[in-house]
Amino acid sequence: MRILLVEDEKELSRALAKMLAKEDYDVDCVYDGLDGLNFAMTNMYDLILLDIIMPKLNGFEVLSSIRAKKIDTPVIMLTALTSEGDKVAGLDKGADDYVAKPFSYNELSARIRAVLRRKGKLVSDNKLEYGNASLDLTRYSLATEKGEINLTAKEFELLRYMFEYPSFVATKEDLILKAWGFNSDFESNNLEVYMSFLRKKLLHLEASFTIESVRGVGYRLSSI
Length: 224
Hints:
Strand content: 15-25%
Low-confidence stretches: none
Number of domains: 2
Largest sheet: 5 strands, parallel
CATH class of the largest domain: Alpha Beta
CATH topology of the largest domain: Rossmann fold
CATH superfamily of the largest domain: Response regulator
């Protein structure tokens, strides 16, 4: 899971990023509202942790802007503003949860898991399922009744994104953002090589589906 952490207190940001990384989250940190908005607009994150009181743009402004663009990435507000009015404002602007500072990391971790479950990102036993296959989010492996096979880090990120949004065509741009990051110079033509590897692994496991190319757009999961 990829998390965007928008927090201007750099010491707190570093500490949170370190703890989140221990739970296998990939974390990008930015330190003001304008950078937070620009990163959020890429729509490449599974969750955004968003402070309110920040330079350039406050968290409410960032949240309003991304929701106006129909970006539905889950957002948890992290803030010292604890009045009922502030909480109501955050939730009304589209936040999924509101965590008041100071908070324990265990509480934040539990709230992250709860928000992701509500958004359909997780299933029981920390796995994603599609067809007759399950993708283990902690072991980076893919399994069917036929057996289990390990995935490389990039194969895992690509397949996880497709498992999370199985009803949609995954564009080449979105897949590259998910697997290689915002500033990657990875060539989209090389993406087909990774998809070929994944197709072979699905075939080996006798999966009930494959990865279909959608000309000029990207890829989607398709039943065999």
